[in-house]
Design a protein that fits this description.
single chain, alpha/beta, TIM Barrel, two-stranded antiparallel ribbon, 13 helices, about 15% strand
Length: about 300
Amino acid sequence: MGNIVNALKTGRVMVSDGAWGTFLFSKGMSAGECPDAWSVERFDDVAGIARSYSEAGADMVETNSFGASRFKLAHYGLEDRVSEINEAAARASRKGAGDKYVIASIGPTGKMLVMSKDVTKEDFYDAFKEQAIALEKGGADAVCIETMNDIDEAVCAIRAAKENTELEIISTFTFDRNSRGEFWTMMGLPPAKAARESLAAGADIVGTNCGNGMERMIEIVREMKEACPDAFILVHANAGLPENIDGVDVFPETPEMMAAYVPELIGAGANIIGGCCGTTPAHIAAIKRAVEVHSDGIAW
């Protein structure tokens, strides 16, 4: 299979997958259980999630490894099983995705350099290196370093993957809108700077995930594109902003509502569109149809 960047260079708009957490709970995962360990203990169930998104039309599927760094796994006493769990996560998605791309998920460690005396950039680098090598061994095509807030942590992850694997590198951040209408990460990083510094560190694709629905993602993509006109940009949007109903967070946007924003999102500069919290295979199927309609030049 050719790489993702080469596919994007043809002008193709690609579709990614949707949320994983809801799927895991629907298959019986309990609160407080380690989601990443399911890649070993419930391999077929994890592969089934990947298959569901592949069958919905996703061109690429993530892995069940978002929290599979040694830092996060230590909360469950599993820090000695990093390689096993990440390799299994990649193998599960590879089995379920078939001939689609596997973009392996690497999330933040939960540690902050500016607030911690017991973690260094070298510690970050080593932890991300361990993850990336195992994910590549399991069959991943790329790593998706996602939900980042701190550019230093993201750069450590990008460098670790770039210097120790042949994987393509996607780097995405989560932004919140402030009272002035500007988008920033929790650590005060705006979209333009996140994109520029990720690309400078060696990322092949940049973007944004979580925290916002499709409508707000349009503004974030536009800001990244204006700062980095040649960049390829990925979006994993939530199904709208959550609403608390009877103590439960519910994501309100239907598949059709999310799909309606696809033309404007592409117009802003998005090259890969998928989902995050609240999205399902039905959302991804609707996004796929909207991308195909747009690519065919048919009015939406």
